[in-house]
């Protein structure tokens, strides 16, 4: 079975708890990766149900389904759940499964901390979700929880703050684990510049996480003391500054969007060479581009604040710095395209999602450059144009990357092939309904429809109806994904050792000759 590696044999004589305790106490990177991925999928469905409730309310003008206060709670919680519950844990799940195998390590460096990192997440998610049921309800007013609004809300906000603390701790521990594993546990011959791109992108992502998660923790802690202990960090009447919260929050928040996309870049950089049957074009430029994106992502945060009041010099700096990110991103898109160029391509589901990723993520990148232009941003600020932009980045970017990686590695993880026909159906339904949902939101935004409002003027009715139909189609299509995964786990054709014809036994991408180890069996690390 392809999923079983020789180093598992070393653990065969250990004491193994069974049943629920097996999952509670596991220190095995594959078990923990699996738990991360299932947790992420459950959160994806939870946040998805919230999105569908939002789209149901917006199906036609007038208030029908939820009251405005609950609508605000839904938009806020949808964002928090999808970011911290769905996308980030999914990538940590991929990291757990793949990084040790890709670098020839027996497991993650801190196997017990790895268990703890995961098991912090379910209680944090429960805490966050239970804020719906306390007086005042869940946080409302957006996932960015700006004061002064967030200072005035009910205790649901305190619960969200604690949930963010716990999830942040989980992320930081996960990142330390990933960094330590990659830097210390590579097999002989696996030099840094021979690591698979997925490992590189996660190494850089982990550094970003260690850099910015404590900053978020600081921001929400100040919010907590402003709310409960009489401090005035963000209270202008007490000598504080609410705009300072925005600066601190976005110093976390902008790198956060790269935290959610760099691992997807890594996945796509593994998938494209396999199905183009060529080595990755421009490997080292890919590494440097990833690092450049990460560094630049730390100096662009105030592009979220162009309308908050800023000197023109500041606006110009943040505008140009933001546009500069398009350069290394362009290098990546060029390299992926050049990898496919004259390759002997086939279009299995992982490749379809990877190509869909390149096409649609690039579109999201273009609308990002549009939003970066100060005069345009001032016009489209807080409209559906921004919603359309970041869903092109996060859904057809991050989520398509996750789907691509899931189909690519499912045979390795389960030992079975997934149903290719159904996989293709899943891709095309997802692709069509995604664009139906979000492309029209560009037009709504340009026409001036504001975000986070449960009702709208009549002229927006047609596009909203199209968007809501798209959203429900998109949501239903994801149940097909669940079915495909369950079917693959329960059986199906045995996955061959070399899963993808012409693919690598290792997830291994090199412009140069392979190192002296084949890594078919991981070498002993001393
Ligand atoms: Cu940003």
From TrEMBL:
Keywords: Cell membrane, Copper, Electron transport, Heme, Iron, Membrane, Metal-binding, Respiratory chain, Translocase, Transmembrane, Transmembrane helix, Transport. One of its GO terms (biological process) is respiratory electron transport chain. Its EC number is 7.1.1.9. Signal peptide: none annotated. InterPro entries: Cyt_c_oxase-like_su1_dom, Cyt_c_oxase-like_su1_sf, Cyt_C_Oxase_1, Cyt_c_Oxase_su1_BS, Cyt_c_oxase_su1_dom, Cyt_c_oxidase_su1_bac. The keyword Heme applies. The chain crosses the membrane at residues 35-56, 76-97, 118-140, 160-185, 197-224, 244-268, 280-302, 308-331, 352-376, 388-410, 422-444, 464-486. It is a multi-pass membrane protein. It is found in: Cell membrane; Membrane. The keyword Cell division does not apply. SUPFAM superfamilies: Cytochrome c oxidase subunit I-like (SSF81442). Pathway: Energy metabolism; oxidative phosphorylation. Coiled coil: none annotated. Belongs to the heme-copper respiratory oxidase family. This is Cytochrome c oxidase subunit 1.
